[in-house]
Design brief:
This protein is α/β, with parallel strands linked by helices. The protein has helices spanning 25-41, 58-71, 86-104, 119-126, 147-151, 172-176, 178-183, 209-214, 216-221, 224-233, 242-252, 281-285, and strands at residues 11-18, 49-56, 78-85, 133-137, 141-143, 163-167, 200-208, 257-259, 266-267, 293-295. Helix content is 37%, strand content 18%. The strands form two sheets. It has a seven-stranded mixed beta sheet with strand order 3-2-1-4-7-6-8. A three-stranded mixed beta sheet has the order 5-10-9. The structure holds uridine-5'-diphosphate-glucose.
C-alpha cells in the first residue's frame, strides 16, 4: 500500500461513530449540521485528501451514503469515505476492553456490544500500522473553522503524550469522584480549571496512534489488573466509556494527554447546573477565547452564528 507515515502524508483521517442513525431523525439532523459546517470551512491543499471513516451498521451505512452525496456536494477539497462494520470492530475490541467495561459502562454487566464505546482506547491495535494519526469526533458538532487546523495540534504534542483532548466543561467528574474527594479533601481530582483536574470530554479526540503503540505506560494501563487497581484506588464507577477511562487515567498520568484549548470542543450541555452543582457550574463551563468547534452535547441547541 501507500506510505501514510511520512511527515508530508497528504491524508487527514477523521472517524465518527455512526450507528442506529436510521432510527433517529435527531442524529440525522446533527450529522447534517456537522458535515455541512465541516465542508463549508474545510480548506486543503490540492494534493491533500480528507478521509472520512464511519463505524456503522448496514442500515446506517446506506443512509449515510445517501446523505453524504448531498452534504459533500460543495466540498472544495478531495475526500474519501470509508465505512467500518461495527460488528467486525466490536469483535476485535472486546478481548482488549472487556475488563474495563464493568467500570465505565452503564449497568452492572459488561455487555459485548458496549465494547465499541471503547474504540478510541484501543484504536492503535485495531487500525493498520500504516495509520499513524486519526481524529475521532462526535456527530453533534458544528465547525466554525477549517478542520485541517485541528490536525496541526498534533505537532504540539510533548513527548510521551498519546492523546489530544479538551477538558470536560461540566462538574461531572466532581460528581463521579465524590467518594474519593471526600476521603482526600486536598485533592485536585474533580476540581475546576485552571488548577484542578476536571476530567476530559470525548467529543473531539486527537489520537496519535504511533505514540499510543510506542508508549509502555499507556499500554500497561490497558491491562486488566492495572485498570482494576486504578478504578479501586479512585473508587471509580462511570457510564461514558472511553471518556471515563481517559478521565480516570488522566488523574494519575496527566502527561499522557495534550490539553486542547477549550475552543476546540466547546461543550454546551448544562445538565449538571440544574442537578445539584449550580454553585460551582460556571467554574467548569467557562471557556474564554475563540470557539473553533461547538459541541451540542445532551441535545443542546447550537448557536446560529
Ligand atoms: N452515536 C451513534 N448512534 C447512536 C448514539 C450515538 O452513532 O445511536 C455516536 C454519535 O457519533 C454521537 C456519539 O456517539 O455523536 C456520542 O453520542 P451523543 O448522543 O452525541 O452523546 P453526547 O450527548 O454528545 O455526549 C455525552 C456526554 C459527553 C460525552 C459523550 C460520550 O454529554 O460529555 O462525551 O456522551 O459518549
Amino acid at each position: 500500500g501507500e506510505d501514510t507515515s511520512s511527515p508530508s502524508d497528504p491524508h487527514f483521517h477523521v472517524l465518527m461513530m455512526f450507528t442506529k442513525i436510521d432510527k433517529s431523525r435527531s442524529l440525522q439532523e446533527k450529522f447534517r449540521v456537522a458535515m455541512l459546517s465541516m465542508v463549508k470551512h474545510g480548506d486543503f491543499l490540492e494534493e491533500e485528501v480528507l478521509v472520512l471513516h464511519f463505524v456503522s451498521d448496514q442500515a446506517s451505512q446506506e443512509l449515510g451514503q445517501r446523505m453524504l452525496q448531498e452534504v459533500l456536494l460543495d466540498a472544495t477539497f478531495q475526500y474519501e469515505v470509508v465505512f467500518h462494520d461495527v460488528v467486525e470492530l466490536t469483535h476485535k475490541l472486546f478481548p482488549i476492553v472487556e475488563a474495563m467495561q464493568k467500570y465505565f459502562s452503564a449497568g452492572s454487566g459488561a455487555y459485548y456490544s458496549d465494547a465499541i464505546f471503547f474504540l478510541s482506547v484501543a484504536m492503535h491495535h485495531i487500525m493498520p500500522q500504516s495509520l499513524t494519526r486519526i481524529v475521532q469526533v462526535d456527530l453533534d458538532l458544528k465547525y466554525r473553522t477549517n478542520i485541517r487546523d485541528l490536525f496541526q495540534q498534533f505537532d504540539h504534542f510533548p513527548s510521551g503524550a498519546v492523546l489530544g483532548i479538551t477538558r470536560e466543561m461540566q462538574p461531572v467528574y466532581r460528581h463521579t469522584f465524590w467518594q474519593y474527594r471526600k476521603e482526600n479533601p486536598q485533592t485536585k481530582v474533580g476540581e475546576p480549571p485552571p488548577d484542578g483536574l476536571p476530567g476530559f470530554n470525548s467529543g473531539v479526540m486527537l489520537l496519535d496512534l504511533r505514540a499510543m503503540r510506542a508508549s509502555p505506560l499507556y499500554n500497561q494501563l490497558l491491562e486488566p489488573g492495572n485498570v482494576a487497581k486504578l478504578a479501586d484506588q479512585y473508587r471509580f464507577r462511570g457510564h461514558l466509556g472511553d471518556q471515563d477511562f481517559f478521565s480516570m487515567i488522566g488523574m494519575e498520568h496527566p502527561e499522557l494527554f495534550y490539553a486542547l484549548a477549550c475552543g476546540w470542543n466547546r461543550q454546551l450541555c448544562t445538565w449538571w447546573r440544574e442537578h445539584g452543582y449550580g454553585d460551582v457550574f460556571q467554574l467548569y463551563y467557562r471557556c474564554d477565547g475563540p470557539v473553533y468547534i461547538y459541541h451540542g452535547n445532551c441535545n443542546t441547541a447550537i448557536p446560529d452564528d
